Amino acid sequence: MTIQQLRYIVALDHHRHFARAAEECVVTQPGLTIQLKNLEEEIGIKIFDRTKVPLKPTAAGVEIIERAKKVLREADAIRDFVVDKKNDLEGTVTLGVISTLSPYLMPLFIKAMRDVAPKMHFTIKESNTGQLMNDVETGAIDIALMATPTGNPNLKEHVVFQEPFVAYLHQSHPMAGAELYEMNPHDRPELLLLQHEYCYNAQLLDICSLPEPGTRWEQFSYDISSIETLKNLVRAGLGFAIVPQLSVLNESEGSLFKQFKEPKPVREISLVVSDHFSRKLLLEKMNETIWNCLPDTIKQNTGYKKIRWNDSPYFIKTVNALKA
Fold this sequence. Notes:
Layout: H1 3-15, H2 18-24, H3 29-43, E1 48-49, E2 56-57, H4 59-87, E3 91-98, H5 102-116, E4 120-127, H6 129-138, E5 143-148, E6 155-168, H7 198-207, H8 227-235, E7 241-244, E8 257-259, E9 264-274, H9 280-293, H10 296-299, E10 304-306, H11 313-323
Parallel strand pairs: 3-4, 3-5, 9-10
Antiparallel strand pairs: 1-2, 5-9, 6-7, 6-8, 6-9
């Protein structure tokens, strides 16, 4: 017994005519007749007396049809509840954000989202990419704001924007006075990376055409987890950095950071959810709000090259080593 079969018998009771009932149900008349026969055979009771003109339900059929109407009302109520739930902007949502983005975008997003959805409560968790992907899959968080594509078939990615990378240089760097930065071979071995941010590191290595991290100093090794710490090391002349553009939002261009020549390397930033996440309106509003928070320099449609991370040999090798 199916919901659709119940709809058929209710339509037949209303029209008392196979052709008109079939038209209402958007099914062929033979198809409706077969489904009625299948239902009657399944329950072992005749629902309609076909010898009557117009068609008339049997005594048992009358009771079955009334019960079918109640079931359909409940089914429709469930459908309406689900639609309302998808479209509501209330309740609590856990949002995970990659640590290379959270300090720069979240203050802008939180302020704007309060006006868009004042009845929503957001719990924001900052983490690395690998942990965010796992947390979305297991349900520990509802949504992740992170770099994509992930290459994970169990996740749905809703692209929000493309964030350019910029070169971060110390004041005595040979290209400190240049208008745009072009990769300098001498910078490659000086590249500073972040500890445990393997997808981010994979992107930087790709930009620099490096297969793996190099060794910069014999006396010191850096376990860096903050872009701000990384930038301070560059200011002290202790390395070269490539950072997301939002991280220099409050710095004047031409001082320590330089835009790349086109095509500019960018990372794709998306809202990532599990394949059964259903709150479409919430995603649309979050997407729109984040976009409206962005500076015009990021919204500009310039020539760029999207830098992937999930297929990086460095990323695959590092993650496999951690699992071993």
